[in-house]
């Protein structure tokens, strides 16, 4: 017996077919979205670039193996001195050491994020007449773009010992023979015994005057 029930027909798809997308427009939209996100990220990064650059410069100072990602206590103290975070009035070297020990915890170094925390701690003491937001801003201005101050350049100093050793008038023996009365070196004549072929006795005061007299009388 044939099945008298008929199967219901499937509803027609009323969703209109998508029009073929324009590849050029899709690429342009993606590019605009990427540039928008990149510009936003770049703007936020540039705000901290000067501060982070200063951190890295001081972090690698005096250590050829440093990566610039962490900072030791010695370099932290130097940064605070060179950038005038320490004013010997509101912030002292003791304050700087205490904050570093507090921020670093059990570690020996601090990261850039911990560095910002340390600056924030000191900013409250350094700029007491400003609110919290202004103190951090002023503290960042002291540090941003700065680099370690190089000191300890060797300078020539006058020493009695050095003067005595370099005074040719006090030389004796073979050393004395190497210089004339003015202190100028004689060169080869002061180092080797040269044969005198002038015909005069060595040390004769009037050496060379004979030829002058003979030629002068003619």
TrEMBL record:
One cellular-component annotation, GO: mitotic spindle
Keyword field contains Transmembrane: no
UniProtKB keywords: Cytoplasm
One GO BP: oligodendrocyte development
Gene Ontology molecular-function annotations: GTPase activity; magnesium ion binding; protein homodimerization activity; tubulin binding
Residue segments, region Disordered: 1-47, 177-198
Biased composition (Basic and acidic residues): 23-33, 177-194
Annotated coiled-coil segments of the chain: none
Subcellular location: Cytoplasm
Family: Belongs to the TPPP family.
PANTHER family, per database record: P25 ALPHA-RELATED, TUBULIN POLYMERIZATION-PROMOTING PROTEIN
Name listed for the protein in its UniProt record: Tubulin polymerization promoting protein
